[in-house]
Amino acid sequence: MSIKAIVFDFDGTLIDSNQLKYDAYYKLFPSDDFHKRIITEVLGEIFEESRYAILKEIMRRVNSITGNEYELDNRVRELATEYNVIVVDGAKHCKEKPGAKEVLESLSKKYNLYLNSTTPEISLKDIVKHRKWENCFCDIFGYPNDKVSVLLEIIRKENIDPDELLVVGDGKSDRDSADKAGSRFFHVFKDGLLVKLVQDSEKYL
To answer: Which tens digits make up the pLDDT trace of 118-140?
Structure first.
């Protein structure tokens, strides 16, 4: 079957923001070896999870919160707010992935495009609007939405078969969500050109 709708990941897929998101966690904690080691360990294990999950795990391992779960959650929200300030500004101004704008403008004329990210939805929409890409997408989904649930909702909304949906992303979570939804997947490699998606249209589209 041919593709009838396309879902894009955002960070690392459309914009080159993975490194700035990675580095931002270190700015939230003391720069001693103890904290650096824990942050590196956590990011190595769950970097594709939401910032809330990552910050909560860092805090647990640092053990700087000795109170109850409510106190921990409050501190995580505070850190997440600080993190958001750092990464939103960076995401607005960092380089786009090669060919991103051209691909969105070209494909949005032929297909219904969607955005599916672990970035908080309000911030995600703000970044997309700043880059003037909002008109390319039928809808934009961010945290706390689950990636698989979003794909299933888009399949239902579009009234299409799962394999008529193409997921475009750079991470394991993107591939896994596509597999679980029964959709096709296009992998955007770290140094690859997103425009290859259009060049290989006979294979994917």
So the answer is: 999 999 999 999 999 999 999 99
CB of 52 within 8 A of CB of 81? Answer: no
d(CA 148, CA 135): 24
The domain limits of the chain are 5-16+96-204, 18-93
Residue 143 pairs in a beta bridge with 120
Per the listing, tokens 């942050």 go with: 39
C-beta of residue 186 within 8 angstroms of C-beta of residue 204: yes
Q: Does the pLDDT of residue 66 top 80, yes or no?
A: no
Res 52 pLDDT > 90:
yes
Fold of 5-16+96-204: Rossmann fold (3.40.50)
- What's this model's pTM, rounded to 2 decimal places? 0.87
Residue 116: beta bridge partners? 141
Residue type, 204: Y
Which is it for the CA torsion 160, 181, 12, 126, positive or negative? Answer: positive
